[in-house]
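PROTEIN DATA CARD
Card holder: PH domain-containing protein
Chain length: 138
Origin: Ruthenibacterium lactatiformans
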Amino acid sequence: MEFSVPRHGAAIVSGWCAALGAMLCLPFWKNFFTPTLAVFLLWLAACFGVLAPRLASSCVRVGGNHLTLRRGLLFPVTRRIPLRFLAGCHIVQTPLQRMTGTCLFFLYSSGCTTLVPGMRKADAECLSAKLTHGGKLL
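Structure generated from the sequence above:
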């Protein structure tokens, strides 16, 4: 079973990062307009030109004994978690994500917490049901 992150889900998460950059640039806007504008435009380019495609490349595969998370284009990162070490999962939705049908999917295992941002809500619920198997983890 394989699940991927849609582009609009990745764009929403990148928009959060862009909003954070705008709030951080706000105090410097009056005194240093041109450098602040240049830094903000560079931040926007990084958010939507680098972060969004990297998040959109996220892929979750469930095998017989393990769960594989793959993310990245130029430098792909693969995280493999044996199913017996999974401790739980959590689905979080913001109001904007509710409108678009996406969510944040957290996976908890012994030793790490993994976030899959921008995943489709239906995919996250299906994956959660498969991993928890009626309330008991596999």
